[in-house]
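Progress against Task 2.4 (sequence-to-structure conversion) is shown through the following example record, which the project officer requested during the mid-term review.
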Amino acid sequence: MTKSIRFIDSQYHDLFRIPDGGMIQVTYPDRSFAAKCEYVDDYHLKVANELFHICQFAEILERGGGSCQPEPIAIKSERVSELGTKISDLSSLSKNLSFGANHIFYTRAHDGYDGLTATYDLDFKEALKMDSSLLYEAVDNGDLDVIIVFSTDSLLRKFDLTCLEDDRALFPPYEGVAVCRNEAIEKHQELKEILNMLTYAFNDNIIQDLNYQVDIEKRSIEEAAAEFLKDNGYLD
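Structure tokens generated for the chain above:
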């Protein structure tokens, strides 16, 4: 049985799980990177070969304003009518399609390339390995047809890509939550109610748009966040 790695917030609320050897995208306000994860036991994992307790990893992310998530698959939006809206739609077309992903995706036991092709009966004419930063330009230029991406990435919007539905549930879901250190809540009790208001305020499209404003339009994080909160009635 494939072992799964559990990701939580610092309050031990479950966020998502990925298979042993799976890949996450770690995002901080000023940088992002992909990292391979290894199962150690139910309460420990390795991220990029560094050992963490699952709560320790959550706390490190939160202190730095970071987050993590697994990856979906994307195509150019202009090709949706040709290729479909679900990963399973690619099955009968894959022999004529080129696929691209970062190197680590090909090493993953369950939700990597072998798992993807087996689950969805895919047989791409070529499968290329390249740095994640190059995948978007390659699919935009027509050098690739299908790539592995992150659903909140601002480049999805910049290059007009559409994420395909994982209709056979190969990739684990990611659910974001608002988090705060205990000492901050104890000092400012009103924060708990305020943060709870944001629990259902975001989805992938909203976060993608906010990332686009900061990464591509070069707005400050504070400006983009304040506008979102005001427009949605969270600030006067």
